[in-house]
Amino acid sequence: MKKIPHRVYLTEEQMPKQWYNLRADMKDLPDPLLNPGTGRPITEEELYPVFCEKLAHQELDNTTRYIDIPEEVQDFYKMYRPSPLIRAYNLEKYLDTPAKIYYKFEGNNTSGSHKLNSAVAQAYYAKEQGLKGLTTETGAGQWGTALAEACSFYHLPLIVYMVKCSYEQKPFRKSVIHTFDAEIVPSPSETTEIGRKILAENPGTSGSLGCAISEAVEKAVSTDGYKYVLGSVLNQVLLHQSIIGLESKTAMELLDEYPDVVVGCAGGGSNLGGLISPFMQDKLTGKADPRIVAVEPASCPSLTRGKYAYDFCDTGKVTPLARMYTLGCDFIPSANHAGGLRYHGMSPILSKLYHDGYMEAISVEQTKVFEAATMFAKQETILPAPESAHAIYGAVQEALKCKESGEAKTILFGLTGTGYFDMYAYQSYMDGTMKDYIPTDAELEKSFARLPKIPGIQE
Amino acid sequence: MKKIPHRVYLTEEQMPKQWYNLRADMKDLPDPLLNPGTGRPITEEELYPVFCEKLAHQELDNTTRYIDIPEEVQDFYKMYRPSPLIRAYNLEKYLDTPAKIYYKFEGNNTSGSHKLNSAVAQAYYAKEQGLKGLTTETGAGQWGTALAEACSFYHLPLIVYMVKCSYEQKPFRKSVIHTFDAEIVPSPSETTEIGRKILAENPGTSGSLGCAISEAVEKAVSTDGYKYVLGSVLNQVLLHQSIIGLESKTAMELLDEYPDVVVGCAGGGSNLGGLISPFMQDKLTGKADPRIVAVEPASCPSLTRGKYAYDFCDTGKVTPLARMYTLGCDFIPSANHAGGLRYHGMSPILSKLYHDGYMEAISVEQTKVFEAATMFAKQETILPAPESAHAIYGAVQEALKCKESGEAKTILFGLTGTGYFDMYAYQSYMDGTMKDYIPTDAELEKSFARLPKIPGIQE
After folding, report:
1. Which residues are in the Tryptophan synthase beta chain-like PALP domain (chains A, B) (predicted)?
2. A382 to chain B: which residues are within 8 Å by CB?
3. Domain-wise residue ranges, chain A
4. Which CATH architecture has domain B23-66+115-228?
5. For residues A92 and B81, what is the distance between their CA atoms, to the nearest angstrom?
């Protein structure tokens, strides 16, 4: 029997030179983004006030299957990629499962997560277009760190709106972002009109990704030479993150392996969409039929309890309308520790695939997530981010099913990042003070009732 | 011209199966450890009350050149190794130097440093001997984290004495160590006789590695079935850490490269001794003649300003006497942020090599270290630990010399770890509140005057 190594790293020659655009293989495309003013599909030009041109093009490009990764971005990738594909031998042994468990670990860079993959691309295109600066939001802080790293490298000023509860829970995240010269504003803030409005309506709010997006967009649109960038949800982000899945698939091919099931955590969908992309391609084109499982927090369950509807991507209702699984853009999730998953919506691409039955989804309470996280840390020596630990939980469930059935399935999951800045959360889990929050049906119904009305499309 | 990749990872087959014992190639050996009671060279048996047997043997073994790495330790290594050898293309470009700069990056594991390499070995041998538990000390917290990971994996209880200033500066380090089930005591503490004595003499002391070692040794000796382990200074630790240098040398050979100069940070010597080992072998055996440069903090300059003398390894004077470069075991360094380098002495092996002219050493103030650290983070995207940034500073100096002379030298340095738990320090550097401390000659003379007297050896 062929001995499978613990870790596989591709060589530079084996690393992807192109991103893969999943939309090119979807027979049924996601519904188009709508201009909230006209209710009509948005055009590339209409996106220019917010996004830089190349990214606006990628956002609406449903047909180009493979898109060249610019040389400069490839060179940046080589500073921290390839990320390893790891065989979780010790986890398998601990669970006493016949399953083979692999994980793609994206945490070995200073941003601590996969977010750098899209940050580099977006900062590069912004620089190429001659922009004066960028704005963005960050939840857990990983996207903010990643973008700060990328902007620092390309000498682009950056303003980061950081969700207030993360800003307060993670003082050291701020310092890391400062080290890379970015400005940080806790959101909601007094620096934007929408921030002031949200604060007036909810004075004690701990913020949400949806609020922070509104503020960052307003800031970009109102600042000369600035554009806005986003770390998840968007089609362009899933495109850039396809590098995770492409590397994973190549590495598994080197081992003569193919996953029976692919598991990822789901917030806005950036990691999940990237990880599954080439496997979903196989599914869409009939080459293979792996199961795809999204794991989301029970406190913010957009896929498992949301509505598939047109909604704003932000709380302030300034973005285009996207058809996606959503809890309603007014929904402010409880202060769950997986800040990166506290988002009311879900990538339109993933939403469509889920709606059409290509994907499954489960939700899990945070105490169970931290139980999986600490167990994993002790077995595999990596301290995972709370977001990533959702995927661990999902993979463990699959492995335990195999134990019961005796099947030696091959499981691949995405370990998106590390938890070094989440120690408050770990401490509260260990102290027994961590609580689980699950929104009631009434809360969700109230939020759904406020979904936007679009004449002729969504009444 | 052959294109050199950004990163080289060895395959599992290429990974070292044996550690390299530098002493076997030293014509002039370090002076022997002395039993402080008798003033005579200590025997293996005399070490048994403190160390487990296999480690006591390794400590005194001056002749076995290569020592097999136990299979179980190799398997653990495979969970987080090989570490990458990275070509610092962007740093070179930024410095505009003709030099080629490589670094061996040991930070991509949850301990955040190279410390795990010896922690695994020591925990494994302790488990093999059937011990009930271990005690240790930690300065910056990297060793404590590493040993907690290893002990958790082998189900061995662990008590960590953490230098008080680190305990206070790094609350999240504690949480990480807790996650791996170890007990943490801020040192000096009331839990040991020596701790109580030190507190009585210096009530406001922020502690030091020397104090914490004394407490951990006392606790081990006075607890049934417990032994003590140390993360640096000792010969056994340099032996385990030789994996850093062995991997580096193999990776450089794959690139047809060989360093003209090897640079490492120096506290107790664990990383430096490991990194340089195969290159020093070449030097000792006449095969090659690379320069070896140690970089230490100006606040704790054992090589550059210390005395080469017999001294205790701890502040409480309970350990054997080692001949080494020392500032005196009573010397308590200022609260420098590179906690891992705040040690009064230096590995006896490295001390001897330095004394005999095989190594150079420089010292540097911490503000300059953080200047190098932030510059490096922006160029190479890795946020370094303050300890590691000493090596960056040294490598940059070498690269700038090349810029002046026009020589395209090959520089290798050890990037021992990441700075995610050092954000207080980074923040104080960015705020401009960071201060440099350099001990006065009078302070050092006072400390030297208290070096132990050993009849017939050191009067």
Report:
1. 80-417
2. 80, 109-110
3. 29-66+113-228, 82-110+235-444
4. 3-Layer(aba) Sandwich (3.40)
5. 19
